[in-house]
Amino acid sequence: MASNLSFKILAVLALGLALCVQATLGGVTCEDLDQDVCAFAVSSTGKRCVLEKHVKRTGQEAYTCRTSEIEAEKIRNWIETDECIKACGLDRKSFGISSDSLLECHFTKKLCSPQCYDSCPNVVDLYFNLAAGEGVFLPKLCEAQGGNVRREMAEIRSSGLVAPGPIQPGRLIVSPALSPAEGPIN
């Protein structure tokens, strides 16, 4: 009984200490992060961190971590693990991200793998929102990994909208109001 009480007291003290340390340190601040952990991190305010490359006057490259305007859903104070970076096929040295990576079958396969999709909520949240911006539902895209991947990729490329084809191939239809004059203008 005494050891159970001691354990509870230690647990409460440890939790209190963790909260005090976090309050003292202020959580994750993108500008304070090293370039090796910046990409795919989320600040204490819920804003995503981005790695930026600058060229100094000497021609030497310098990297800085900045806070972006993109908010993460329900994620704060997060530095992505190396295991997730590897499992999801990401690169810490990436400068910004785009939905174009979803067009790459190799990347999508890694993103949709159980090692990434089931274990890396920050990465999945990020790419879920990118896919949604293109009108694609990420779980459906991942489901297609076992089926018609080309069709799903075509939907991403076209953003789901396809222009209608001609009514009769090889025949131009002109409105009478817009028809050209019947002869030369004198």
TrEMBL record:
Database matches in InterPro entries: PAR1
UniProt signal peptide: 1-26
Keywords attached to this entry: Signal
Coiled coil start-end: none
Organism: Rubroshorea leprosula
Protein name listed in UniProt: PAR1 protein
Matches recorded under Pfam families: PAR1 (PF06521)
PANTHER family in UniProt: PAR1 PROTEIN
Keyword Signal: yes
